[in-house]
Amino acid sequence: MFTSRPVIGLTIGDPAGIGPEVILKSLRDCKLNFDPLLIGHMEIFQLYNGLCGLDWSFREVSSVSEISAISNSRTLPVYSLTPKREIKFQPGKPSTDGAALAMEAVATAVSLAQKKEIHAIVTAPIYKKGIQQAGYMFNGHTDYIAHLTGTDDYAMMLTGEGLSVVLVTIHIPFRQIRDQLTVESVVRTLRITHNGFRQFGLSSPRIALCGLNPHAGEEGMLGDEEITILQPAVAQARAENINVTGIFPPDTVFWDTVHGAADVVVALYHDQGLIPLKLLAFDKGVNCTLGLPIVRTSPDHGTAFGIAGKNQANPDSFTEAIKLALKMCGGTP
Fold it and tell me: Does the record bear Acyltransferase in its keywords (predicted)?
């Protein structure tokens, strides 16, 4: 069961990327109001500890209960994966072995969270092409964790610097976006957003819905999706007492939201929501999956293979992901 402080599982991500580095730097920089549990491969963490000139020591553990026996604040517990695999890799050089290790760490963390042995998960970046080459036919963490937890209704939220964005569609080719936009998919995302932000303490979250077309379609002149899909979705959501406004032009809604007009924007596709978010919070954005039965956050950046192992990675986004995970599980950031 839980220790006296929240336990947060930190998954290694692709070992050839910056995941191990940002994990170790985040733990160096942030106040430890929780017990971290590194999930991955101890030798890889030791390697990056040396490459980055850090002074952590590590202890391999096979159960969460062993954390309480670690009295040295400079010693980090590393949860053993079973079976333990030998990994041959170089920083900056992705491999299928590394991608498989990253996914095994995620599966282990989810299992621990489902058994309530840890309070939350913060996942370091994975290489999406690599995980598919390793046999994991998912488009990323979000889909995989939803699969592991048996969750059908979930949504990706990104947040940082006063802007929160939830996406209706996620990692799909641009030409498929229109086909996946339906009244049902939009209402489902609005519902998940409403429930998720109520868990954050807002009794009636103010949701701004983004249009698909320039100027939100100009009353059908520039596209009819606002009329045929989004307006019926708004009407249905309002009938469920969801506080949604819009449909707003994509080029103004984010500015208005940052300046207090809404609590969150529901955007229709990946880049529509992430471009403004990353302009505001490139180094501090956080990804959170709404709708899961467990708490999961991650930094809003990728593996950055080009700087892996060079002690150049900025840990701020990972630190913010830890803070959000703590907030969501009732801890103190």
Answer: no
